[in-house]
């Protein structure tokens, strides 16, 4: 099911992945693709666990925010996304899919377009958006945690006390 975000311009059209559209898939490929998770992926769980250990409290998968960020630290208006390398186009110009390009090229370019729109919208609502690639979280977890911690420390130092 495709969500259409209001006010989004020039939306890339993604064809349906079905035999009538000329796309074919094996049963094994279909089984593999069905196992791919949109929530609670390994990189997401790693980052959540590391932030929780640092006493950073957050909410996950907020339905009321555009793009449903993986983590939201409301106190500091911080939205964090952990993007899959393939699904969100990591090094897109060098790593384009070789099969079923009529489907995958618009699909991933649409994901990238939606990511930009969601970022702009959340920033318009006063949120700071951080995006981490799945390989960054897997291989350099503490670097990602430190970026979040640095942002929080900076936000704390800028916050003016309510009562003097």
Descriptive overview:
The protein is α+β, with helices and mostly antiparallel strands. The chain has one domain (19-158): Endonuclease, Chain A. The protein has helices at 27-34, 42-53, 101-124, 134-139, 141-158, and strands at 59-60, 71-73, 78-83, 128-133. The protein has a four-stranded mixed β-sheet with strand order 1-2-3-4, sandwiched between helices. α2 (42-53) crosses α5. The longest helix has 24 residues, at 101-124. The radius of gyration is 18 Å and the shape is globular.
Which CATH C-level class is it? Alpha Beta
Mean pLDDT, to the nearest integer, reads: 87
| Unreliable sequence segments | none
> How does the major sheet shape up?
4 strands, mixed
Global structural class: alpha+beta
Helix percent reads: 40-55%
**What is the chain-wise order of helices and strands?**
HHEEEHEHH
* CATH fold-level label: Endonuclease, Chain A
Amount of beta strand:
5-15%
DSSP helix count? 5
Instruction: Specify Rg, calculated over alpha carbons.
Output: 18 Å
Shape descriptor reads globular
CATH homologous superfamily assignment:
VSR Endonuclease
Strand neighbour order, sheet with most strands? 1-2-3-4
Please name the CATH architecture. Answer: 3-Layer(aba) Sandwich
Could you say how many structural domains there are in total? 1
What's the N-to-C terminus distance? Answer: 52 Å
Say how many strands there are: 4
């Amino acid at each position: 099911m495709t969500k259409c975000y209001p006010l989004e311009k020039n939306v890339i059209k993604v064809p349906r992945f079905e035999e009538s559209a000329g796309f074919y898939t094996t049963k094994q490929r279909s089984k593999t693709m069905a196992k791919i998770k949109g929530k609670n992926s390994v990189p997401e769980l790693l980052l959540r666990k590391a932030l929780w250990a640092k006493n950073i409290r957050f909410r996950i998968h907020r339905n009321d925010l555009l793009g449903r960020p993986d983590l939201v630290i409301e106190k500091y208006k911080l939205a964090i996304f952990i993007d899959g390398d393939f699904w969100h186009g990591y090094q897109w110009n060098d790593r384009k899919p070789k099969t079923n390009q009529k489907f995958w090229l618009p699909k991933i370019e649409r994901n990238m377009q939606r990511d930009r729109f969601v970022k702009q919208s959340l920033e318009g609502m006063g949120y700071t958006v951080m995006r981490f690639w799945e390989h960054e979280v897997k291989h350099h977890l503490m670097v990602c945690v430190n970026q979040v911690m640095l942002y929080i420390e900076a936000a704390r130092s800028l916050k003016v006390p309510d009562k003097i």
